[in-house]
Design goal:
By secondary structure, the chain is α/β, with parallel strands linked by helices. Helix content is 24%, strand content 26%. The chain contains 8 helices and 15 strands.
Amino acid sequence: MDTMKILHIIAPGQPIIREVPIPEPPPGEVLMKIIAVTTCPHWDIHIMDGIPMFPGAELCYPYTAGQPGHEAMGEIVKLGPGTSGPFPGTRVAAWRDAGHHRQGCYAQYVCAAVENVIEIPSSLEPEAIAPLELAMCVEVSFSRLRQLDAVAGKRFGVAGLGPAGLAAIQIARANGAREVVGIDPLPARRQLALALGADEAIEPNPETFPSGRYGPKSLDAAIDCTGLKASIEFLMDRTRDAIAIFGVLRETVDYSTRHWGGLALLGYTPHNRPAAEKALSYITTGKLNLRPIVTHTMPLTDYAAGVRMLKSKEAVKICFRPWE
């Protein structure tokens, strides 16, 4: 029986590489040979640390094999019975996370529902397209902001310049923001935001960015990519109209009388194919460059070292190559 290599986190901080049979795709699914899979840093760090990604969720070990990998691109090698297209040889990216109850993408092969993959140009560098799922997720928030006319022509803020925030900088620009302001305490992240199109990149403190929703430096709208109470409330005191909360919210945010005069907080909504197609169009037209966000490429056998680099902020996002 043909086998493949797969990552398996058997206990907090204990990833191993196992040899397992290559799965057979069932009806409605395809077998994808994974060329590149990128980290989703919060997922990777939480699972390696033994902490649930979402507050109150159950977390059991051994964790599901191949998880938490879900940002992947590769090539279709086989169709399940009765499944039509994409045909073998087609390059695709996984645009939607299938859930952490089934095998993940930290492997040489993975089965995926045909509706969860999207065809991609073969000319794209793996590191530039593997994080498509991340771009789709960020675009979901922007689709809500566009409904309020809160991006085009606006002074727009992005709090938290990790992978999602650095994608948001570019997506805000692609949607016609008049000015884009990145906010992060790390100088290296602010420099990268400027290189990717931010007009300003500032520290989140009152000296560099005074409080006031209607001051000369205030924002029309913003997206928070941290999920942290302090970050969201920092934006709330400096934003006129709307804030999309993209980061996983773990604390109660205080909305007071100084905010109710016109400020809307937008929660997150489900992932969807139009958002994936929109994200792919940003990439193929050159409006979104994910390659600079992927700061390191490593073999999958170096997974533990890669997660340590994410925790220390030495890496922004890592691409693992399962065949190296």
